[in-house]
Design brief:
The complex is a heterodimer of chains A (183) and B (295). Chain A is mostly helical. Chain A is built from seven helices and one strand, in the order ααβααααα. Chain A has helices at residues 2-36, 39-58, 66-85, 108-122, 126-136, 142-149, 153-182; one strand at 62-63. Chain A is globular, with a radius of gyration of 19 Å. The model of chain A is unreliable at 92-107 and 178-183 (pLDDT under 50). By secondary structure, chain B is mainly α. Chain B has eleven helices and one strand. The termini of chain B are far apart. The chains are: A mainly alpha (183), B mainly alpha (295). At the A-B interface, helix 1, helix 2, strand 1, helix 4 and helix 5 of A face helix 1, helix 2, strand 1 and helix 3 of B.
């Protein structure tokens, strides 16, 4: 009977994990992609992150905040990959073809707009971009971001504020340029 | 701030997506990884993934946390003692193996009873086993005052546990089953203890009476529900108190329980308070009925 109960628990864990997978895959992919801007690598990172979370669970870990845990693991995977390949994973890579790098089904103008949004984010420094996207794209609270990044909530808030300031400037410039071009 | 950038963030959210094929491919890889690294049975107890919409029933978790260590300890005890448990089955109060029978073998057998109905039935069965023991002791001329007191106390304890299970059944809307079980209890246990009892001077009316009064309340439940809900909350308090009673009992000391039909139950220490609760509940229920009947 004890064995049966344990098997049932194992099945529950499996089910919960798959539910987490279905809920979070796309948003985790987006999070990773906005940081490394490499579609294939982002997919590898997502896969590896889920496998690592599963390994922890299978070894008996009690995960209280699965989403934050998943993102923290993904972040570690990115750091490990960057170390292994001795590549600056987080460096800006201007040669990436943005228009092939995302799943597009919409109209050309929408894709162009998406490209501009991506560009705008890309101009931010790594730390600012990370804080900004986690707050407004991934919808984490500053406290959650602080936990994932391992810094204080205060630091996170400062980064978000500065990122917003930078972005405002950047978008303002774009806007001015657009106005000048049309004149 | 979020509104200011909502256009940008909306674009990023909508535009950065995995295709269905990509998503399925990653899932395949992850699932095969899961199959290669299954949850180890021993570790499953501690694993948890408590998302906002965690599927796991918290009762399951309690069951594991609470029951497993005890289960393991007792199973080990059973293995070590070997035939002891079987020998204990036939023991009577006063025998050396009697504590093994009621605290170990019956405890283990109780684990099989998972549903409220099964648990109620098991409590009933235990009460009836106690009565058989009394009869056997009497036949052997060994029914001492002490053995008698012990048996009476056990029966009233089982009756109270039975009542609690019946309540749980009712709360689940299993009114029919609850009624049938109580009728069975009255026939099998109650009928042969109190009035026409063999030798036991035990009156379980006060335990079972609560049930009857609740019936009355339920019958009048169209009006003010306050009385009923009050009664219910007191009862759950009583249920918790039962653990204390049980602990006293386990201590195996010399409480003197008198069931005199006046719902005045005397004991010592904690047991007294718990049992008085039953009386209070009765009073509450009475008051509830009076209010509802406009008396």
């Amino acid at each position: 009977m004890w064995y049966d109960i344990t098997m049932a628990v194992a099945e529950d864990i499996r089910r919960e994990f798959l539910a987490l997978y279905d809920r979070e895959t796309n948003s985790l992919f987006r999070h990773v992609f906005l940081r490394c801007r490499d579609r294939e690598r982002s997919k590898d990172i997502v896969q590896e992150a889920f496998c690592r979370v599963w390994s922890s669970l299978a070894r008996g870990a009690a995960i209280e905040q699965p989403r934050a845990f998943l993102y923290r693991v993904a972040r570690n995977v990115m750091i490990d990959m960057a170390r292994k390949k001795r590549e600056a994973l987080f460096a800006e890579s201007d040669d990436v073809d943005l228009f092939e790098d995302h799943a597009m089904t919409g109209k050309a103008e929408e894709d162009a707009e998406y490209g501009r949004a991506l560009e705008a984010i890309a101009t931010l420094s790594r730390e600012y971009r990370e804080a900004f996207t986690m707050r407004f794209v991934d919808d984490f609270s500053p406290k959650e971001i602080a936990e994932i990044l391992g810094v204080s909530a205060n630091v996170v808030s400062v980064r978000i504020t500065r990122a917003a300031k930078e972005l405002r400037k950047r978008l303002g410039v774009d806007h001015a340029q657009a106005v000048t071009t049309t004149l | 701030m979020s509104k200011e950038f909502s256009h940008v963030t909306a674009l990023l959210k909508a535009g950065t997506k995995l295709s269905h094929e990509e998503e399925a491919k990653i899932k395949d890889e992850v699932v095969s990884f899961m199959e290669l690294h299954p949850v180890r049975v021993g570790d499953a107890q501690t694993s948890s993934l408590s998302a906002g919409n965690a599927i796991r029933d918290s009762r399951n978790i309690q069951a594991q946390n609470g029951k497993h260590p005890m289960m393991i300890a007792t199973i080990i005890a059973l293995f070590i003692s070997g035939g002891t448990a079987f020998a204990a089955e036939g023991s009577l109060p006063g025998d050396a193996l009697y504590p093994v029978k009621i605290h170990v073998t019956e405890e283990v057998r109780g684990w099989v009873a998972i549903s409220d109905e099964a648990e109620a039935r098991w409590e009933m069965r235990k009460a009836s086993r106690r009565m058989d023991e009394a009869k056997e002791l009497e036949a052997e001329g060994r029914l001492t005052g002490e053995a008698k007191a012990e048996i009476e106390q056990s029966i009233s304890m089982h009756a109270q546990s039975f009542s609690t299970e019946i309540k749980a059944l009712r709360e689940d809307g299993k009114e029919e089953e609850a009624k049938a079980l109580r009728a069975e209890f009255v026939a099998e246990v109650h009928g042969s203890t109190g009035k026409n009892a063999t030798t036991l001077s035990l009156d379980l009316d006060d335990v079972l009476e609560i049930e009857i009064e609740e019936d009355v309340e339920r019958g009048n439940s169209d009006g003010d529900r306050a009385g009923t809900s009050h009664g219910t909350s007191s009862l759950s308090g009583h249920t918790e108190g039962e653990a204390g009673e049980r602990m006293n009992d386990m201590g195996g000391n010399n409480e003197n329980w008198n069931f005199d039909g006046e719902t005045k139950i005397e004991g010592n220490g904690k047991g007294e308070l718990e049992v008085r609760d039953v009386v209070d509940i009765k009073a509450d229920a009475d008051a509830g009925i009076r209010t509802e009947l406009g008396l």
